[in-house]
Amino acid sequence: MNRILEVSTRSGTAQFRPCTEEEMRWGGRSFIAHHLQREVEPGCDPLGPRNRLIIAHGLLGDTKLTTAGRFSIGGKSPLTGGVKEANVGGSCGRRMARLGIKAIILKDTPENRTPRILLVRNDGAELIDAPDLAGKETSATLAYLRDRFGAKTGVLAIGPAGEQTLTAALVATTDDAGVQLRVAGRGGLGAIMGSKGIKGIVVDEAGAVPPEPADGEMLTRASREVARILREDPKTENRHNFGTPAVLSLCNALGILPTRNFSSGTFEHADAISGEMVAELIDQRGGKEGEAKRGLPCVQGCVIACSNIFAGPSGKTTVASLQYENIALLGSNCDIGDIDAIAELNDLCNQVGIDAIDGGAAIGVAMEAGIIEFGDAEGAKDLLRQVGQGTPLGKVIGSGVVTTARVLGVCRVPATKGQAMPAYDPRSLKGIGVTYAMSAMGADHTAGNALETAKAIDPRGREGQVPSSFKLQVRGAILDSLGVCLFIRPAFVKDPSLAAQLLNGRYGWNWEYRDVQRMGIDCLTAEREFGEAAGISETDNDVPEFMRSEPLPPHNTVFDLSREEMSKIWDTVLPDDIF
Amino acid sequence: MNRILEVSTRSGTAQFRPCTEEEMRWGGRSFIAHHLQREVEPGCDPLGPRNRLIIAHGLLGDTKLTTAGRFSIGGKSPLTGGVKEANVGGSCGRRMARLGIKAIILKDTPENRTPRILLVRNDGAELIDAPDLAGKETSATLAYLRDRFGAKTGVLAIGPAGEQTLTAALVATTDDAGVQLRVAGRGGLGAIMGSKGIKGIVVDEAGAVPPEPADGEMLTRASREVARILREDPKTENRHNFGTPAVLSLCNALGILPTRNFSSGTFEHADAISGEMVAELIDQRGGKEGEAKRGLPCVQGCVIACSNIFAGPSGKTTVASLQYENIALLGSNCDIGDIDAIAELNDLCNQVGIDAIDGGAAIGVAMEAGIIEFGDAEGAKDLLRQVGQGTPLGKVIGSGVVTTARVLGVCRVPATKGQAMPAYDPRSLKGIGVTYAMSAMGADHTAGNALETAKAIDPRGREGQVPSSFKLQVRGAILDSLGVCLFIRPAFVKDPSLAAQLLNGRYGWNWEYRDVQRMGIDCLTAEREFGEAAGISETDNDVPEFMRSEPLPPHNTVFDLSREEMSKIWDTVLPDDIF
To answer: Which of A246, A421, A391, A254 is nearest to A323 (CA)?
Structure first.
């Protein structure tokens, strides 16, 4: 059985309905794209009653495939004005999938925003008043939900920023153990949840009868093959050992590491905040007494297991998991070279409930404006605490980098389509600039990260970047719709037919590789069309003005792909294999 | 001779060049529209080096025609992202015109924004460092300029808000006597001036040889006819006596007076803030001892003379001139029924240098957010003082209503295209809603105010509103391009050929009424095309969401013209006479 849970936050009703045949073909990101396009008025106020918050697991969310169980949260973004899908690990997606709930859709807005909890069970769902949760930090809220409803539930929550409907607000969840805080950070989705007065969501899978796969044997065989290939791939070991922070040294070497509000591509203290240093400190501070660990999975059964628990010198956890983007945006981008301070800043972002990318970029801009000095970690912590307290300056920072820059009078704004740029400066990695400019998601590395093409395609050259970005974007849309991690790619490179085999095994379809590719393209098209109808124009398909005129040290590059050149992206003819 | 002064704020050079033949046909608003369309990259950052601030007098700016001398300031607006033209009285326009300077164009941005003064003389122009002016209030700056460069100069200045590049910042000027502060308030043009590091502009007409009209006799005859008709028109006397505040009682009666952040169309204390009350108080407080006066011209030689000097109970000036929009936005819209408090708020807006419409709307939204209570005049004054001080909350308010609403989490935002709505709620005056939605200027009553059609067309009905708005918009574009006041209209109603006669007398053209109309339409088209290229989409052509769903007391109307219906506006076939 596959069903949708529709919740009216106005009337307080929560009802299941069966999926339509069409909806059965959608999952995760593609569910969000197609649902928005069909059901949501593109011009609506993202924080008004006509927008929806959609939580959807991927097409393979109820399988044992490695990395599957990641799920998507989406809606019309208050930052970009277009479709936003943020993808996250943790235990919630699989639990939804085992309950046969393809998506939870929050509709309308309540009379008042006194916090409520949405409790989802096998036999029904209800909204529970929870006024005491008002203003509670994210981890405390998640812990409260697990305490009250049991540690075997999947939980989602927003922090104080989401309650204030600040437009950089995140939605958080946890891993099975309740240790890692995993976030759907981008696009301000926490503000949508806040606008609907929902502080937390609990998915209790007691009594669930997980759907049977159509061809269990085929599914198992393909799943095992994916895991086998991944285990043998050398990238897997590197990721297991160093996680995403591994790329910091590479980005510094390429000259694309955001430094002092994107004014340099290398950072003097890169070694002190590198993936190697993070691993070393975790090993030092972990062991029997300490809580620090690395090589953890974010979803059960992942063979890569690239997450970590980062601890301070005392051995007590600072933040879990500490990732590359956040180190760069809160670290080098703010001229902060102290990894412990960065980890604390990351935790503060999580606890007040804002995206560390938009938050770090906003702090960088506030430093450029002279609100605090570059390098002032204590000042940065204070700014983030103010987000939670709801001071005027905190509200500005919590609204993300574009609003912060506008209010503070800064013209160097590292953002596209209203959303802060992740940790790859596009002046010296031009392929990702194409993604930032052209993706309906705005500046989002997971929408199509050209870092991995930097060996095959000159990262500072224009040649080949447009079709390459398209390929990466389609691939991202496929993986986000399957509900698997982007790091699963090596398996699909080795055997492009595996994705179709997995889907056919699960659903009894008769898909070929081309059908999988079509699913990805259709998802991107729906996202783009929704964005255009929502008012995203061709003019918005660009990198920030200063990146076209201000050379980026050390290579002194500017971004020089023209808008016209980039606009041809949708005409790209894809090769048979895009993985 | 007609010439253009081009100033590079980067290199510090200021040079005259002759007008092209094409430019000779443009004036004021149409100069701005056509210049932007030809010379400015539509996608540029409004506060970056590629935008320009354009100051242009109207086509009849150097004539003695009554009301002529009003001039236009414009650029790509940091609020709307499209063309913004703000029209203003005072003495600067005529002085520019007498010098034969059709436009002053500020280009580029400086290395740093230490305040400078642009001094314009007959034989050249220069930039003068003026670091001492940093942070100075608007009136003090204007007084400084008149003191230093002589009272016979035209002066322009920004306040602290403009220096901070806050997006609701205004540009101010004075009348000949230096008593009235006249503002080009809308669209954040003061932020553009601030981004260019120009704190003040001085136009010294010493040595000017005003251009000779081509047919002085025709020009004089037509000018006299305009003045004669105006003097005989009953509206002129009413305007002379009560000024723009005269319409407050009418708007209250129609149920369109913005009250408590546009939640009601009538205000309990309307009588206490009406035009009649303003006139009565001015008469009481004026006389021999007091400074209060009414029936003042904003440009020399105006036969209407609808401005005033408003004084407090002591007889000392509070603000000059006190106008309807500001009374409504800072008064009823904030639930403030004390006209003295409103006048002080208006003066504060002027002194810190923000548009009182966007500022008043922002305060209304801050009240809805609970930052201060509705009706709290002292709290509102404090918010405005904070704009000048540059506190975080002040910077938010100074960024206008849309940013204020976003940061404070308010969904009821009375704005279109990023700009606050003037004092006519479109739910019960639907024609102005069409203008707000469709004009490239965003919510701007001077772009096409349907108030005057409220007798001929049911203001709460949909019938006829779209073509009527178009007619009003074309008319506005014509008058703003001539450099005359909107209140000159009765003369053109009586004799539609007068506008062409005036232009032919001045320039030796051979225009007919139809050519004048074409000039207005071409101006609107250029504005619309620039906006579209800049990223203003069809989705932006709408009133705020809440005005379509939330009924407005007392008539309980919603705005119900569809976007599709309104989108036909550009197909309107105009009658021969649109005045």
So the answer is: A246
Rounded to an integer, what distance in angstroms lies between the CA atom of residue A145 and that of residue A123?
19
Interface of B with A (CB under 8 A): 42-45, 47-50, 78, 109, 164-167, 195, 391-393, 395-396, 399, 403, 406-409, 411, 532-540, 542, 545-546, 563
**Terminal C-alpha separation, chain A:** 32
Least CB-CB distance to A392: which of B392, B532, B533?
B392
Q: How far apart are CA A377 and CA A406, in angstroms?
A: 23
pLDDT digits (tens, 9 = 90+) for B41-66: 999 999 999 999 999 999 999 999 99
Kind plus residue range of the DSSP H or E element containing B3: strand B3-8
Cα–Cα distance between A187 and B271 in angstroms, integer? 47
Q: What angle do CA B72, B76, B77 make, to 5 degrees?
A: 85
Q: Three-state DSSP class for B455? A: coil
Q: Are B451 and B432 in contact (CB under 8 A)?
A: yes
Distance, in Å, from the CA atom of A175 to the CA atom of A181, rounded to the nearest integer, reads 7
Q: Å from A160 to nearest chain B CA? A: 12
Mind giving me the DSSP string for B122-133?
Answer: TTEEEEEE-GGG
Query: What is the CB neighbour count within 10 angstroms for residue B326?
Result: 29
Nearest to B407 among A45, A403, A411 (CB): A403
Enter the DSSP assignment of B91: S
- Please, what is the angle between helix B465-482 and helix B430-438, to 10°? 60
Closest residue of chain B to A402, computed from CA coordinates? B403
Residues of chain B contacting A539 with CB distance shorter than 8 Å:
42-43, 533-535
Question: Each residue's pLDDT tens digit in chain B (579 positions)?
Answer: 589 999 999 999 999 999 999 999 999 999 999 999 999 999 999 999 999 999 999 999 999 999 999 999 999 999 999 999 999 999 999 999 999 999 999 999 999 999 999 999 999 999 999 999 999 999 999 999 999 999 999 999 999 999 999 999 999 999 999 999 999 999 999 999 999 999 999 999 999 998 899 999 999 999 999 999 999 999 999 999 999 999 999 999 999 999 999 999 999 999 999 999 999 999 999 977 789 999 999 999 999 999 999 999 999 999 999 999 999 999 999 999 999 999 999 999 999 999 999 999 999 999 999 999 999 999 999 999 999 999 999 999 999 999 999 999 999 999 999 999 999 999 999 999 999 999 999 999 999 999 999 999 999 999 999 999 999 999 999 999 999 999 999 999 899 999 999 999 999 999 999 999 999 999 999 999 999 999 999 999 999 999 999 999 999 999 999 999 999 999 999 887 777
* Residue in A166, A409, A533 closest to B539 by CB: A533
Q: Is the pLDDT of residue A308 over 80?
A: yes
pLDDT in tens, B119-145: 999 999 999 999 999 999 999 999 999
Task: With beta carbons less than 8 A apart as the criterion, state whether B16 and B24 touch.
Answer: no
Chain A positions touching B390 (Cβ under 8 A) are: none
Whole-prediction pTM: 0.97
Cα–Cα distances in angstroms (integers) from residue B417 to residues A174, A568, B450, in the given order: 40, 29, 19
- DSSP characters over B320-363: ES--HHHHHHHTGGGT---HHHHHHHHHHHHHHTB-HHHHHHHH
**How does pLDDT run across A399-421, given as a tens digit for each residue?**
999 999 999 999 999 999 999 99
Cis (ω within 30 of 0) for the bond into A321? yes
DSSP B68: B
> Alpha-carbon distance B548 to B118, whole Å?
46
DSSP B474-485: HHHHHHHHHT--
